[in-house]
Amino acid sequence: MAFILGLILGSFYNVVIYRLPKGEPFLFERSKCPKCGTPIRWYDNVPVLSFLLLRGKCRSCGQKISLQYPLVELASGLLAVTCLLKWGLTKEAFIYYAFFSALLVLSVIDLQTFLLPDSITLPGIAVGLLLSPIREDISFYESLLGAGAGFLIPFLIYTYYVKVRKMEGLGFGDVKLLAFVGSFTGIYGVLSALFLGSFVGLLAVLPILLKNKNLQFVIPFGPFLSLGCFLGVIFKERILSFLGF
Prior knowledge:
Layout: H1 2-19, H2 49-53, H3 68-87, H4 91-113, H5 118-131, H6 140-163, H7 172-212, H8 222-234, H9 236-242
Helix pairs in contact: 1-3, 1-4, 3-4, 4-8, 5-6, 5-7, 6-7, 7-8
């Protein structure tokens, strides 16, 4: 049931991913083919299954449907199951699912546009702070401290690159993303996002480094920060035990 619910919500996340960067409304409007504009019938909008039955093509124009759609739906379903298995049927499971879902949406948007919309990160910081008093795993003080550290640490990195090296080594959207991460996960989540995200990011760009033999390229860092945070939170106990805490 959690997986099915995640699939359904993942279908909605795809709408947000497509429309939010364009400034288009994503509530109460029927989905339509991005190629021909034909409204999508309900039976062609069943998460994952419709993609498979249509063989990845629009019924009306025959153009290919991006693989992003079923992948986001599957990711959302797996996130729901992961949260349920880790936290059980508790408020923490719902909170973390919503948080990870926001990171998923932000990551895909960043991959496509190199943007991390303020309309998600800034309200997300406020929501993280407001939810902290009702949670068992984090206090309001830890949430506030995490949001502050999540903003300050990357802001100093951002400022150094802009003022000293005259370039953006870290986008300002990443600064706000880490403040959002900190408000939900505290300082631990911020450090996980930075260290684990940087490690995974390095592995991902290693082929580019070997091919170009220089650092003159740009990659969206948001997905790696999000993945680092996710891994850090899910495997928190094992990581802390490995570090001797």
